[in-house]
Write a structure and sequence with these properties.
Keywords: ATP-binding, Coiled coil, Kinase, Nucleotide-binding, Phosphoprotein, Transferase, Two-component regulatory system. One of its GO terms (molecular function) is phosphorelay sensor kinase activity. Strand 9 and strand 10 form a beta hairpin. This protein has 17 helices and 18 strands. The protein is elongated. Among the domains are: 121 residues, 2-Layer Sandwich (Beta-Lactamase), CATH 3.30.450.20; 85 residues, Helix Hairpins (Orthogonal Bundle); 147 residues, Heat Shock Protein 90 (2-Layer Sandwich). It has 559 residues and is an alpha+beta fold. Helix 10 crosses helix 17 and helix 11 runs antiparallel to helix 12. The C terminus is likely disordered.
């Protein structure tokens, strides 16, 4: 074994300095790292302790069984993992782990023994919390299952994205002697991170990149990566999620150095010369070592962005199907409402024709009759325009809208059905409710669906009992809209199912209306809920966030 006494003074100092710098990087790593002996924690970094909810030093000397959901799981993983390491250099898998407060969460775990002849004796293990990724995978799977019955196929892209998210960590270099092996150990950690990592100097210039970043950026050297980053910044090839250019002073690494704090989860787009756009989620943290600036982590999210955009497109199409279904349900009332002005128009025009045939050319009578015909024709045209606007395809947009005005427009659109259903509507619209950034057509669709449901819920009541109460109010940083009816209400057993796709209580219903409404409200950052009101009927309410400006639209890869 080589000790510092066996080395020259300058070599020993250099090695100690390098080890100290690597120790700082180790302590500030974005993933949990621990060194175990016989499955007992000998040492771990700050991120490892934070991940499991323990105070600094509390895990040292403790058996790692305390971090498993059960003893059985601990034994099973031990048999599988160490059995695998008897014939392989590294071991990697995804498993459930347990924090100090008992919460169970997903981790991606990889490790290697320091001595392959005795894999359980000494080992280095890397833990990464992948709960968010797992939740994203589950959300994508749920969305796919909802739409599977309508499109009859799963996308191959989803499988590729899932496989990409499970990329294994790279192989670490084998250590040599103890002192030099310590340096190689930290080098192996840096090179084996499952996310791209770069390290900058105090001016923000990249001085080191790991293998993962080299692969995902397709730039094999530090010089090429630095040159491309600077050139992209100057040529507006780096963009924010809304498509605006990202200047050099807005880069996460530059901000982390300037502000001396962690800059987390910044989405950064890089447009290549061929027009292709790739997306990365970037986190940067300052390194408290002289000569170093920041450690920057890059995770490619191009596939995730594509899936999100595809999901938005499918949700928009599903919403349009729901609107068309709504108009189908309103067809009879709509035909009646159109029939009145069209019949009046025909009557006036027919009267003019009879007068012309009879030789009666009274100009004043003709002017009055034609004016009335025009008036009723414009009424019919207005109804058709409202219907066309309601069912048209449209690109999602976000504009600042007074919510009270939107409600009044919706009620004007439904007025003919309200009159036909002989329902009274009471409004309690708070005058101090601020405008909100929304897609007007989508929010109008939500309200139309809720009001039509209320009409149907009270159809068996006597006309004088058919009342809908609509109110708006401000609840903290949210605007709340509530629509309450006097119908039979929603039973307790159905309260938990009412927003599920394809669940319906109507004989010929599709079960899409409320599911689409909830999806629309949640995509705006709000919540849609239902409860029983004081009259025994149903009270549906939804919230919308109050923002100073419109949330950014995502710029998508044209390829």
């Amino acid at each position: 074994m080589t000790s510092s006494r066996d080395l020259g003074p300058s070599t020993a100092r250099a090695l100690r300095g390098a080890l100290a710098e690597l120790q700082v990087i180790f302590d500030n790593a974005f993933v949990g790292v621990c060194y175990t002996r016989e499955r007992v924690i000998v040492r771990c970094n700050k991120r490892f302790e934070e991940m499991f909810g323990y105070e600094p030093g509390a895990l040292t000397g403790r058996d790692i069984v305390m971090l498993y959901p059960s003893r059985e799981e601990y034994d099973r993983i031990g048999r599988a993992g160490y059995g695998y390491l008897e014939t392989h250099d590294t071991y990697s898998d995804e498993r459930m782990m347990r924090s100090r407060d008992g919460d169970v969460f997903w981790c991606q775990v990889s490790g290697r023994p320091l001595d392959h002849d005795h894999p359980t004796r000494d080992g280095i293990w890397i833990f990464q919390d992948i709960s968010e990724r797992k939740r994203a995978e589950e959300a994508l799977q749920r969305a796919n299952e909802r739409l599977e019955s309508r499109v009859q196929e799963r996308t191959a892209d989803l499988r590729r994205a899932y496989d990409a998210l499970r990329e294994e960590m790279g192989i670490r270099r084998q250590t040599e002697e103890e002192l030099r092996a310590s340096q190689e150990k930290y080098r192996a950690l840096f090179e084996s991170f499952p996310i791209g990592i770069s390290i900058t100097d105090e001016q923000g210039k990249v001085i080191e990149i790991n293998r993962k970043l080299s692969r995902i950026s397709s730039l094999s050297t530090v010089a090429r990566f630095t040159s491309e980053l600077e050139l992209s910044s100057m040529n507006a090839a780096l963009v924010h999620p809304d498509g605006t250019p990202m200047r050099h002073d807005a880069l996460p690494s530059t901000r982390a150095i300037r502000e001396q704090r962690v800059i987390s989860d910044v989405e950064l787009g890089v447009r290549y010369g061929n027009g292709r756009l790739r997306w990365f989620q970037v986190t940067a943290a300052p390194i408290p070592v002289k000569g170093y600036g920041a450690m920057v982590a890059y995770t490619e999210i191009t596939e995730r962005k594509r899936f999100e955009e595809r999901d938005r497109t499918q949700q928009a199409e599903l919403a349009r199907v729901s609107r068309l279904n709504t108009m189908g349900e309103m067809a009879a009332a709509l035909a009646h409402e159109l029939g009145q002005p069209l019949a009046a128009t025909l009557n006036y025009l027919h009267g003019c024709q009879l007068r012309l045939v009879g030789g009666d050319y009274d100009r004043e009578l003709f002017d009055s009759a034609i004016s009335q015909a025009i008036y009723h024709a414009e009424q019919a045209g207005s109804i058709v325009r409202h219907v066309r606007q309601f069912v048209r395809k449209h690109e999602p947009e976000s504009i600042l809208v007074p919510i009270n005005s939107l409600i009044e427009q919706m009620l004007s659109f439904l007025d003919f059905e309200r009159r036909q259903s002989r329902t009274a509507i009471n409004l309690d619209l708070a005058p101090d409710v601020p405008s909100v950034w929304v897609d007007p057509l989508e929010i109008k669709q939500v309200m139309v669906n809720l009001i039509k449901n209320a009409f149907e819920a009270m159809s068996d009541l006597p006309p004088e009992s058919r009342v809908i109460d609509i109110s708006t109010s401000r609840q903290g940083d949210m605007v709340e809209v509530e629509a309450s009816d006097r119908g039979p209400g929603v039973s307790k057993t159905k309260l938990t199912q009412i927003f599920n796709p394809f669940f319906t209580t109507k004989r010929n219903g599709m079960g899409l209306g409320l599911a689409v409404c909830r999806s629309i409200v949640e995509s705006h950052g709000g919540r849609l809920t239902v409860s029983r009101n004081v009259h025994g009927g149903a009270a549906f309410s939804f919230t919308l966030p109050i923002r100073e400006k419109s949330p950014p639209r995502t710029l998508n890869d044209p390829g």
